[in-house]
Amino acid sequence: MDQTYKPTESAPAVRIMVLETDIPHPDTQSARGSFGQILHNHFAKAGRAHHPPLEVETDQVYVVTEKGGRMPTVDDFDRFDGLLITGSVYDAHANNEWILQLLDLLKALWIKRPDFHFVGVCFGHQLLARLLGGSVAPAPSQDWELGHCRITLTPVGQRLFRSRKDHIYLHQMHQDQVVAPPTSASAGPDMLPPNTEVACWGRSEHTPVQGLYIPNRLFTTQAHLAFDEDMVKRQIQIRVDSGGIKDLEHADRAAETAHLEHDGVEVAKAVLRLFSYDHDE
């Protein structure tokens, strides 16, 4: 489903293919649509704040083929400037056939389209790290990072978010994490030129790699940028019901933070600057 936000007739456009790797809670789907639709609306808001305003166009495809999804081809991305991989209940370090197919697709796009932009959220963050030779595994502590969390920004993060503060707040929903970030050596010369810096823009006590950044190429975030209070509570409940989250007290404490303000729009604005320079300093 194509969706477009047009601030003006002459506004420059950013065209993003959203690869949906999960389906929201039925109540969220009814109220706000699929994860791709939710992200479209979130980025449209960020596009309005861009200088000059940006038109945001998205299309979505559900790629979990074992659940009725479809894996796109490289040619399906011809008219897009980049892609965004959503969060998922699946493990980014797993070898499900659709995950391996998605990695093959991402590698082909990375090599064929040096102008293409890659964005990942949660599962997407971890999968793009894996694509470039990083390692993904459950947290050494074996616990979950849940709910409203403080992320300490590196100097790169402060530049990305144009912030004098040394932290932002976002909602978290993960046990797995990037345990060894990618480098140009781990990616190999076909993927990254030697000595390319894969920067980490933030960290937390639970998760040392909260996001990755390569100028004009890659932006990932372990945390979620478009979750609202209801979504946080519902996604926690899904993982409790499935047995993924076993510490119910931890889950309850996290749900109690769901109403707190977060910096998801600032993250979306930084993502859009990956595509188009923002003149507002």
UniProtKB/TrEMBL annotation:
Signal peptide: none annotated. It comes from the Eukaryota. Residues 79-224 form the Glutamine amidotransferase domain. GO terms for cellular component: cytosol; nucleus. It holds the Pfam family GATase. This is Glutamine amidotransferase domain-containing protein.
